[in-house]
Amino acid sequence: MEQRLANCVQLTVNEKQFIENALLSELRVDGRGPLEYRKLSIKFGKDDGSAEVQLGETRVMSFVSAQLVQPYKDRPNEGTLSIFTEFSPMADPSFEPGRPGESAVELGRIIDRGLRESRAIDTESLCILSAKLVWAIRIDIHILDNAGNLVDAANIAALASLLTFRRPECSLGGEDGQQVVVHPPEVREPLPLILHHLPVAVTFGFFSNENLVVLDPTYHEEAVMTGRMTATLNANGDVCAIQKPGEQGIFQHIIMHCLKLAHVKAGDITAKIKDAVEKHNNERALQKIKRRSSSVSVDVCGTTARLGGKQNQSGGGKDNSHLDQLKPKDEANFMECDATSSGQVQINKKDEGSKNFTGGPSSWYGKKDPYSECVNSDLLKAPMDSEC
Amino acid sequence: MEYVSPEGLRLDGRRPMEMRQIRAEIGSVSKADGSAIFEMGNTKVIAAVYGPREVQNRSQQISDRALVRCEYSMANFSTGDRMRKPKGDRRSTEISLVIRQTMEACILTHLMPRSQIDIYVQVLQADGGTRSACINAATLALADAGIPMRDLVTSCSAGYLNSTPLLDLNYVEDSAGGPDVTVGILPKLDKVTLLQMDSKLPIDILENVMQLATEGCKAIANYIREILLENTKQLEYRRGS
Questions:
Q1: Per CATH, which fold does A13-288 belong to?
Q2: Which residue from B156, B155, B159 is spatially nearest to B199, judged by alpha carbons?
Q3: B194 pLDDT band (50/70/90 cuts)?
Q4: Domain B22-231 homologous superfamily, CATH
Q5: Average pLDDT over residues A201-205
Q6: What is the ipTM of this complex?
Q7: CB atoms < 10 A from the CB of A138, how many?
Q8: CB contact under 8 A, A246 and B194
Q9: Across residues A19-36, what is the average pLDDT?
Q10: Which residues of B touch A233 (CB under 8 A)?
Q11: Residue in chain B lying closest to A246 (CA)
């Protein structure tokens, strides 16, 4: 209730009229066309299963975690999925601390319906011991900055984090075969979740003038618009959830038209998410390569140390973490580390005057190195597994 | 499980396009400004409307239109197993929001600035389609309270099981995990105001299911209109003119 009021107070009559009149001539306040999406960028955190999505100015972070619990009695063979939303007062003055408000509940429910009821996640693969132990997957969604269309951003964040989440592998042991052993990630490679399809939410805004339909409304447009519809679709054209909670009435043919548009957009967004996830997975795989500890030469150590020092001077947090990686592999790093050139490692080296190196094939540094282009992440993983 | 038999009958003996029996009663809460009971088969909902009245919390007052509030609750005894969490769970918060915004769309709020309208709906018996029944009951109660509205909002659900579109799902069909489409329309304007959908359904089938639900809404609208007319006649008769 308070949130709604706060939204109304934000805009003056002049501003509202301006937005509507501009829309009549197919112009939007931020220079987009009516059916254009804002720029979407997905970043991943250091941990598996954390993602931050930026949609225009809207920023949403999502974190997935898993826990072993007892399953529900009516579904003994299925893991559970729950979604929690946190609308921090930092993101928007109308968000109040404490209990989740109506909009937070609604957002959680839309994402929950899209993911759970369409059975996007294979919950049966999360079962370890029937009726005794299953994985409970928990998605925490934090709104960091509200610039409109939180639902879409939160949904993309949830999907991205689910796609990168890894749960530890479990096996049954003991005399009776009922003892559950959870293998730490160092011992066995953690497993990704099985996602059958990606339900992507696409939100439309409707205005008092019936012919106006806007995709991905911004904060100001949200304050002006009189109706909203969120359609959750996957790339195959299946509708997974629709939410049009009352408000202004619209004709049915407009709804169908919107759904078709949403289908196209959902395809685009799915591709973007998959690209981002694949890139992240490759980087992750490359970072995990174990180095051979054979010695190459002694004088290299000196260079590496110097390099580390320079990184420290210039670097923020990111550089430091790479520093840790660089140190142990000091001897053998020429062959193998350079193979990871798609990561930031190489970039750092280039920046920090990698010409000092003498031991390695220095001619690589300037160009793209021949190895990384044909590196397949699966191939890289394979030798590691065998070593463990 | 088989939800439609080879003879084309559903579990409760209805045809796929058949609605459950609906029954409505106006004026069931004496203290309220408007009230109604609405039944769809075994689903039974009571609604009460208070207002337009002075805004209770001054800070919520809106200067150019009325404030509409809605509270949805389910009676503890409404379902088969007694409920553990009686109030304030996520589902009822969402349904409250949905009902409020649906009713707000049809109330002429700009005619009653600086006032408040409260809608209370409670589910007495739950057998699927509570959301729709609540909206229908709220419409009747609002009309009974004499609150100016654009149109009567009516709502109905439809599903898709055993590759057959089914109208007005009951609890067993609802919990089958198939798609469930709830539609709310403004029948005179022929506009969709509420649309909620679960599960997975291709776009073209969704269109059919939505169409079916819309037909159901129109049938309910006719019935509600009859009830209201009947009620008005009664009032006129009692006045003795």
A1: Ribosomal Protein S5; domain 2 (3.30.230)
A2: B159
A3: very high
A4: GHMP Kinase, N-terminal domain (3.30.230.70)
A5: 92
A6: 0.86
A7: 15
A8: yes
A9: 87
A10: 203
A11: B102
